[in-house]
Specification:
Elements lengths: L5 H32 L6 H13 L9 H30 L15 H4 L1 H20 L12 H8 L5 H28 L5 H30 L5
């Protein structure tokens, strides 16, 4: 069994800090992306205008589309660092208990904590699909860069219910991941009392429910015909 030296403990704490810091731009992007998606409820022209506006941020100081590439670069670096830190911590935890139990003891902790690793893998796979679908248009049935709203509506059409199902599973995984992350972060800030635990759970629940509800409202609105 591995022995935790002071240096190893400090390294693990540093990795947890890296995970927390890199999660900030990722979470902020998720909320901004969710808010942008909700533009579809104001009509196709409003959504298309918003999508085209994103490409003009920073102009004329920067070439058109530069902001999106800067954003993608920052998010990619943050995601890679986040995944790398999580992987190292997971491997250390595995080495600390190299022998599998013949009878596994009851696992303590929440369901979210126990599924963070596989949830992260699922989210990564979905992000790749999502980029190929609605960013590059490779997997989109319309793939018209001049009409993003048409791409979105075609993507979640009733005949493509399996896309909506996959999207739902991925978004719920994001919500569970966010719930555990926010809960852990609030507790790390010193909320260890009974009242603090309640605050941590409330903050985690509200933040994750808002995000999941916001994202899922769009595909289900298309699926039910509310948005056409």
């Amino acid at each position: 069994m591995a022995v935790d030296t002071p240096a190893r403990v400090r390294s693990s704490v540093s990795l947890k800090i890296v995970m927390a810091v890199t999660a900030i731009p990722l979470v902020l992007f998720l909320y901004a992306h969710m808010a942008g998606n909700l533009k579809i409820f104001f009509g196709a022209p409003a959504f298309d205008h918003y999508a085209h506006w994103l490409r003009t941020i920073g102009t004329p100081a920067l070439p058109s589309g530069s902001y999106l590439w800067i954003q993608r670069t920052v998010l990619t670096v943050a995601a890679v660092a986040h995944i790398a830190a999580a992987t190292i911590l997971a491997r250390r935890a595995r080495r600390a208990r190299p022998v599998r139990y013949a009878h596994r003891p009851p696992v303590q902790g929440s369901y979210a904590a126990r599924t963070m690793r596989w949830g992260g893998v699922l989210i990564l796979l979905f992000v790749i699909y999502h980029l190929l679908d609605l960013t590059s248009g490779t997997l989109n049935p319309v793939a018209d860069p001049s009409h993003p709203s048409a791409n979105l509506v075609a993507d979640f059409a009733p005949s493509r219910w399996y896309v909506t199902l996959a999207y739902t599973v991925a978004v719920v995984a994001v919500g569970v991941h966010l719930w555990h992350g926010v809960f852990s972060a609030v507790r790390t800030l010193g909320q260890h009392t009974t009242r603090g635990e309640r605050r941590a759970r409330t903050a985690a629940t509200v933040s994750s429910v808002v995000l999941v509800a916001g994202f899922l409202s769009v595909p289900f609105a298309v699926l039910t015909g509310m948005v056409k």
